[in-house]
Design brief:
With 451 residues, this protein is of the alpha+beta class. The protein folds into three domains: 146 residues, Sulfite Reductase Hemoprotein, domain 2, CATH 3.90.480.10; 125 residues, Sulfite Reductase Hemoprotein, domain 1 (2-Layer Sandwich), CATH 3.30.413.10; 126 residues, Sulfite Reductase Hemoprotein, domain 1 (2-Layer Sandwich). The chain has ten helices and 19 strands. The strands form four sheets. A five-stranded antiparallel beta sheet has the order 1-2-4-3-12. A hairpin with a 4-residue loop joins β17 and β18. α1 packs antiparallel against α6, α8 packs parallel to α9 and α9 packs across α10. The relative contact order is 0.10. Bound molecules: iron/sulfur cluster. The site of iron/sulfur cluster (SF4) has 12 residues, from loops.
Length: 451
């Protein structure tokens, strides 16, 4: 077991997003984060990898939102990193997070290219210095549809394109991931940026803790007025999830190769080698993307070859990889609050429990009860405590646990879970259905092996 050290204190208030100029203190030093508003070159990413080695501990994260994090910095090296990153002249996101699909404008299946709207919102938000008055993590998602799914991204305000009678409208959704957001109605393209800005101004006026989830129908109606077309509805279209992995079309004669970091983290030397391979293959553009991924843009042969290199280097390149079914935080030694080395346990789980990690649920492994990697409930969550490894069935890591195991049994417990799945699952039954059928008692007993 790894003992927890002093509580982690960020520079600013709790929950502040660590941007490049406001690094956050973690267990392995300070952490700085950057995000891009446009593609960068593989060589630029190699330069960033060099900076991660020079100024930090050589570990790089790509977050669930597609931001890049440098770890293991000191206050001094964080300043030096900032200076060196700025010298590279990259398209860094500053101010309010307004996100579009990395495939926007090059996806034949998209309903609309959301970049223009995003640009308008960013420009006006910057002019009004809205990010200084809004909650630190406020975000806007402009989802033009297409093969890159943005439904799981949390957004205070979301616009989602749909077509009706040959015209394009934008559905206005507020709060949460798309499945949990309040559907407030539709807006025309000409009014869409204005509506978002009006709502942002309203939130800014409510102070730095106000979030999109605080907006209800009557507030939205009062703020948006006639710009909200609440009687325009589109036919429900079945959405099929598509992870940004593997080969995707990205415009005429262009393709994207999607690869994700296992557990959201990579050694900068490994990432640098992949980018060097991309550069040698003639790939000139890449973009970190949601779900800890990266998209490399280039000709089909180059993308396919790069995917082979990525797979051999331990990156995830296809849906169905057991590692994609595990949400895991930095854990020890990366975080001072951690009671266990989460990545080691997650690696073991991905091998031992591969057959039950079938994508039907997310296994959450958390270094402590804060549950940074997954605020939502999980069918099964393990988290470190001073007493041992707690587990919660259909709960969150910060909710009361359903049992505690000695740390020495953490791997054994996962093996017991795998045996339970092997023994009990019926043909065609996925793990989520099986566990729902078995219920808390049976799962808890199997983990404790008190049968
Ligand atoms: S959940 Fe993980 S990353 Fe978050 S504070 Fe706990 S150990 Fe650290």
């Amino acid at each position: 077991m790894v003992a927890a050290a002093d509580p982690v204190q960020p520079f600013g208030r709790r929950g502040l997003c660590p941007a490049l100029s406001t690094p956050m203190r973690t267990g392995d030093g300070f952490l700085s984060r950057i995000a891009f508003e446009a593609d960068i070159t593989p060589r630029a990413m190699m330069a960033l990898c060099d900076l991660a080695e020079r100024h930090g501990n050589g570990l790089i994260d790509i977050t669930a939102r597609g931001s890049l994090q440098f770890r293991g910095l000191s206050p001094e090296s964080a300043c030096a990193l900032e200076k060196d990153v700025l010298v590279l002249g990259l398209p860094l996101r500053e101010g309010l997070a307004v996100e579009t699909s990395p495939l926007a404008g090059r996806d034949d299946t998209e309903v609309a290219d959301g970049r223009f709207l995003a640009g308008e919102i960013r420009k006006e938000a910057e002019r009004l210095a809205l990010h200084e008055r809004l909650a630190a993590k406020t975000s806007v998602v402009i989802d033009g549809g297409g093969s890159f799914s943005m439904v799981d991204l949390l957004a205070d305000i979301r616009l989602k394109a749909f077509r009706l009678n040959g015209r394009i409208f934008w559905r206005l959704l507020v709060g949460g991931p798309e499945s949990k957001a309040l559907d407030a109605g539709a807006v025309e393209t000409g009014a869409a940026a204005d509506v978002v800005l009006s709502l942002l101004l309203y939130l800014a006026g409510k102070g730095p803790l106000a979030r999109g989830r605080d907006l209800d129908r009557s507030i939205i109606k009062a703020v948006c007025g006639d710009r909200l077309l609440d009687r325009v509805t589109e036919k429900e279209t079945a959405w099929s999830p598509s992870a940004p992995l593997g080969l995707m079309a990205a415009g005429k004669d262009f393709f994207a190769a999607g690869a994700a970091l296992a557990f959201g983290q990579v050694r900068s030397s490994d990432l640098s080698r992949l980018c060097q391979g991309a550069d040698m293959l003639g790939i000139r553009a890449l973009r970190p993307s949601a779900n800890h991924g990266m998209l490399f843009f280039g000709p089909e042969f180059a993308c396919n070859t790069l995917l082979e290199i990525a797979k051999a280097s331990g990156f995830i390149i296809a849906a169905g990889d057991a590692r994609s079914s595990i949400a895991v935080c930095s854990g020890a030694p990366g975080c001072a609050s951690a009671f266990l080395p989460t990545h080691e346990l997650a690696g073991f789980a991905s091998r031992e429990c591969a057959s039950l990690l079938d994508g039907s649920f997310t296994l959450h492994i958390s270094g402590c009860g804060k549950g940074c990697a997954r605020p939502a409930p999980s069918l099964l969550a393990f988290y470190g405590t001073a007493e041992g490894l707690a587990f919660a069935i259909s709960g969150r890591a910060d909710a009361p646990h359903d049992g505690i195991l000695p740390f020495t049994q953490q791997r054994t417990a996962l093996s017991r879970l795998a045996r339970l799945h092997e023994k009990e699952h019926k043909p065609g039954e996925n793990a989520a259905t099986l566990f729902a059928r078995l219920g808390k008692e049976v799962i808890g007993a199997a983990l404790r092996q008190d049968d």
